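Re: the request from the purification team.
They wanted to know what the chain is likely to look like in 3D before they choose a buffer screen. I agreed to run a prediction and write the result into the notebook, where they can find it.
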Amino acid sequence: MPNSATTSLNCSDLLEAIAARTFKVGIIGLGYVGIPLALAAARVGFDVLGFDVDATRVKELNKGRTAIKHIPDEGIAEAIGQKRFAASDDFDRLSEPDCLLICVPTPLNRYREPDLSFVVGTANAIASRLRKGQLIVLESTTYPGTTDEVIRPILEEGGLRSGSDFYLAFSPEREDPGNADYGTAVIPKVVGGDGEDALALATALYGSIVVSTVPVSSTRAAEAVKLTENIFRSVNIALVNELKVVYSAMGIDIWEIVEAAKTKPFGFMPFYPGPGLGGHCVPIDPFYLSWKAREFDIRTHFIELAGEINSAMPRLVVDRLAEALDRRKQRGLNGARILLIGAAYKKNVDDMRESPSLRLIEMIEGRGATVDYHDPHIPVLPMTREHAALCGRRSVELAPEAVSSYDAVLIATDHDAVDYRALVEAAGLVVDTRNACARAGAVSNKVVKA
């Protein structure tokens, strides 16, 4: 049953509490999204209670430490020292905060269908402890209708009603891990509410934490905004990946073309090719809309085609690697020793989610080669659902004599900490999927772009 012991507040009371910073913020999911949001809220004077099912993570956070390298421990320690932040794995405390911001994963299952198990589990945990006057906001990326069709019915099972007893909203996370220019506080927040009061409360709360808010007409509209942002990226990355294949056959360098094209001051936005999509958003989110569109008997042609092109990139990279070895009188990949540079899905972070590097390793080894990897941010490969067999592998050093012992070096992630000039000098063959060598001025006939 809902916890009604705490005195409920109406919308105007809650708005006053937000302005006075007596409004307690709860955040569920202390990862790449939840921690930055918690710190941003603490910095502007809110007391924040964070929740996570990982007891070890909670313990480390309460000591002022996080395993996420691009989030400085100093910020967490400062918030704890000021008594503005604490972490807990005790979900019976969910009734304590005045709001609960849900920042849990929304992956795909093996059939590329939405996996809402984390969202549903969280909603059920809240429902049994929900009290009057609480604001509940879903931040996890999902298909339009999730907040209305999935979250609200669960929360209302105990008898409380959205809009009269509690408030419900959706505000999509917009984190870009490792981006030093755009942290949480300087990224505008899109907000959609289940009713006017919910929208007013969510807008006031986020407006106190980030630079500005963008209210939209409904939770469905807010859910659609996030999908649109990531579909835009997916489709344009697929386009430039396809152009890479076409231009390569013509002997044209796609990187040169994009650099020249982006000098046009209007009508063009640069996107860059790569070895495949990674991260928590772009490879996943478009398929949430594809799945939902089938309910309306609509096929999302662009989204599905982009997915096919981007998913094909790892295989193309492996083929290019094999061809490059063939040209150097090797026997292709069979029996070759390959050094892969970069396990993270993007540069300068320790984020492994959906990283194409894992698929590259499996595909290369599936063709008879052995693969070592180097990543200054990931000393050991973590457990992942799709690539469990790779768990526990350790990053190797980049000593010149070690590099020279490999048949080829494959650059999958262009971390800034790698000395690409020294890498090219030591290696016999470098296959570069990120144009890292050229950008570092390491021009050599030993470098093959893929």
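For the purification team: The first helix runs from residue 11 to 20.
Please add any questions underneath this entry.
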